[in-house]
Write a structure and sequence with these properties.
Layout (H helix, E strand, L loop, with lengths): L19 H20 L26 H8 L8 H9 L2 H13 L4 E6 L4 E6 L3 E2 L7 E4 L7 E8 L11 H12 L6 E12 L2 E11 L4 E11 L2 E10 L3 H14 L1 E2 L1
Length: 258
């Protein structure tokens, strides 16, 4: 039985066997984030990339759950098929408990992740499971569709507002093309807007990234608060956008720093 605490900073979670597509996407995205850190002067070993109007020193936080996740679950899902993962995960006590919590909050079809340590929260679709991916503060994914995910990355910064990195167009383009997309893909910005929540500026935008195997549609919300640069990312395969687009729009709209 797997039990997940969605409000505290300590989690005991299952490490799912990620599909090849997820491994490729997440590994390359994390390379992009690593390059982003290096270009801004991070005190870590990583390579550099060129960004637009972004030059502060930043440092990715160590994942809070890395040690426990590795020691408890390292070999749990080796050799398991996707179908066995579905059977084990959907009926787990964690899923039932989270569903009851979401229902109690009146959020039909969604569960709530609230991090009281790093002070942020968001909704994610019922049935998605938390997995460990190095470099992210938290990541949830669908157990069938590998490109359907929601994640938060937190970077230390000396800036007081997302606007200090540049205007909406500059930051949107830089994040989409140089941080969140592997090299060599065709990137197209689909939407971009600035919004204010509780006096805090957010840059929210969408883009598609096309490679020779698939096109991923991504939605992003980014903000800065108390020396932390929050980058929230969710998305899905473009072929599934007719089914998932409205739902993922609600997911990205729900992200906020508390």
């Amino acid at each position: 039985v797997d039990v997940a605490n969605h409000s505290g900073s300590k989690h005991t979670m299952r490490v799912l066997t990620a599909s090849t597509a997820l491994n490729v996407v997440m590994a390359l995205v994390l390379v992009g984030l690593s390059c982003f850190k290096a270009d801004l002067g991070a005190a870590m070993q990583s390579r550099s990339v060129s960004t637009t109007k972004m030059a502060p020193s930043i440092l990715v936080q160590s994942p809070k759950r890395m040690a426990k996740a590795h020691s408890a679950c390292r070999n749990e899902m080796v050799g398991a098929s996707r179908r066995s993962t579905i059977n084990a995960g959907v009926l787990s006590a964690a899923g039932l408990l989270a569903a009851s919590k979401a229902s109690a909050k009146g959020v039909k079809g969604f569960q709530v992740h609230k991090d009281t340590g790093d002070k942020y929260e968001f909704l994610y679709p019922f049935g998605w499971e938390e997995i460990y991916v190095k470099g992210t503060d938290i990541l949830y994914k669908d157990i069938i569709e590998p490109l359907e995910t929601a994640s938060v990355t937190i970077i230390q910064t000396d800036k007081g507002s997302i606007k200090d990195y540049g205007d909406l167009a500059d930051v949107t383009t830089s994040l989409a093309e140089k941080v969140l997309t592997p090299p060599g893909q065709e990137v197209k910005i689909t939407e971009a807007k600035e919004k204010d929540i509780d006096g805090r500026a957010y840059y929210q935008f969408g883009f598609t990234a096309k490679n020779n195997r698939y096109t991923r549609h991504t939605l992003v919300s980014a903000t800065i608060d108390k020396g932390k640069y929050y980058i929230f990312v969710t998305g899905a395969n473009e072929r599934r956008w007719g089914t998932m687009g409205e739902k993922l729009q609600k997911v990205v709209d729900s992200f906020k720093v508390m």
